[in-house]
Amino acid sequence: MINNNRIKQVICGLLLTLGCITASAQPNSKLCLRVGLIADPQYANKDDHGLRLYRNSLEKANEAVATLNKQNVNLTMVVGDLVDQGTKDLKPILTNLAKLDSASYNLLGNHDFVEVTDKRNLYQAFNMPAPYYTVDKNNWKFILLNTNELSNYAAEEGSSEFTAWENLRDSLKSAGRKNAAPWNGGIGAVQIQWLKNQLNEAQQTGQKVIIFTHHPLLPENGLETLNNREILSIIQQYPNVKAVISGHHHEGNFAVFEGVPLITLEGMVETKENAFGVMDIYEDYIEIKGYGRLKNRELKF
Question: How far is CA 249 from the centre of its chain?
Fold first, then answer.
């Protein structure tokens, strides 16, 4: 027997891959993309610690994948901390995410570097094309930053990145900032210039932009990117940046900077429920449907 609902889902997915379609709920707006969102699975084959239910992340990831496939997402963004203690537990979580019907794109988080020796090439183990990169889809540019670049855990001692991290850490401490903590990181000068180049290119070609990071840029609660203010000063120059989506702070959070919403996704590991979402991107707003404890949001441009 033919499943009419499944046929409708497939047709909807095909239309989304071809471009924007009219959304039935918003007849005057266009649905351009459907994106899966996952933050901080932090899987590990070890006992729970408080509400961090490490082993349960495999089952949660399976549930998320099944739902995202049913929702015919065009792609999925995983914003870091796939594992709790580096690559020794990486294979099972990557195997589960590989069941997605569409492409998934990973970022590294601070926990992904634990006990890793080859830090410069760690991104390859996570099936990433580079430590930071872009994804272009349907006139949207997704910019995935590496906010671990300047940090105690990711930069090799004696490298220019390590020196830059030490200088940044010292200046933050002198200023009384709370984010000069060993689990936070920042981005270096080369990556800053690369970000500017990507934003300039997107502006010239008429692309709208969403930036993804592991460490949030706001609010300033001690968990934000080390040089968040430098990054924000760049973002405010580009009105085509429509949102910033991050992880790291498992409770989730939200802020607005110069009209740009900054969303911190609730972490999958630290809940008895699940936590993942589906983001529908329209021409003039974003709608996030949360599953488990991940919050629903509607954000107009």
Answer: 12
CB 169 within 8 A of CB 226: yes
- 3-state DSSP call for residue 231? helix
**Over the stretch 173-231, which tens digit does the pLDDT of each residue have?**
999 999 999 999 999 999 999 999 999 999 999 999 999 999 999 999 999 999 999 99
Q: Which two tokens stand for residue 187?
A: 């981005």
Rounded-to-10 torsion of CA 221, 246, 148, 186: -50
DSSP tag of 186? B
**Chain segment 14-34, per-residue pLDDT in tens:** 334 334 443 444 556 789 999
Residue 62 CA from chain centroid, whole number: 19
Classified as helix, coil or strand, 105 is strand
Angstrom distance (rounded) from CA 73 to CA 65: 10
Which residue type sits at 125?
A
Q: Which pLDDT tens digit goes with each residue over 65-116?
A: 999 999 999 999 999 999 999 999 999 999 999 999 999 999 999 999 999 9
- Cα gap 25→13, rounded to integer Å: 17
Q: What is the pTM of this model?
A: 0.91
Burial of 258 (0-12, 13-18, 19+ CB in 10 A): exposed
- Cα–Cα distance measured from residue 241 to residue 246, given in angstroms and rounded to the nearest whole number: 15
What is the CATH topology of the domain spanning 35-280+287-300?
Purple Acid Phosphatase; chain A, domain 2 (3.60.21)
